[in-house]
Amino acid sequence: MKKRRREQSFVGLISWRDIPAQVIAVEGGSREKALLPARFQHAIDRAAVVAGMTDTKAYVSEWKQQKFELSGDPKTQINELAGTIDAQYDEGLLERLVRNGGLDDGDASSCGL
User: Fold this and answer.
1) Which terminus of the chain is less hemmed in, N or C, by CB atoms within 10 Å?
2) Which distant-in-sequence residues (6+ apart) come within 8 Å of 54 by Cβ?
3) What is the pLDDT of residues 31-79, one digit of tens each?
4) Euclidean distance between CA atoms 88 and 73, whole angstroms
5) Residue 72: phi, psi to the nearest 5?
6) Model pTM?
7) In the β-sheet with 10-16, what is the strand arrangement from edge to edge?
């Protein structure tokens, strides 16, 4: 008899290198997600070109997920986090990340994520 692995509850921030793309919440067997505005995906695509990561394997290998504690309603929490990220990552910050090939030179870390 197989043991069932207990589902972990968390909020996850999915990023390509240091550019966020979406926020997810996993609780039990359910999953919610909030995509960030299209400007984030455009920045990711441009940063990948700057970094020379245009082949699929290299591009995919740079995706990562940070996990945070889930507290409260998952949908509310991911929407709040997505709104905070959208407000904090202005066009100037995204442009700096693009120029650095998607890597944070220290400016993005000041956003408190």
Assistant:
1) N
2) 48
3) 999 999 999 999 999 999 999 998 999 999 999 999 999 998 999 999 9
4) 23
5) 95, -160
6) 0.87
7) 30-35, 19-27, 10-16, 63-68
Q: Name residue, tokens 């700096």.
A: 96
- pLDDT tier, 7 (very low <50, low <70, confident <90, very high otherwise): low
Measured CA to CA in angstroms, residue 62 lies from 47, 56, 102 at distances of: 11, 10, 10
Q: Which of 109, 106, 67 is nearest to 88 (CA)?
A: 109
Beta strands in 38-111 (DSSP E): 63-68
Residue of 68, 67, 21 lying closest to 45 (CA atoms): 21
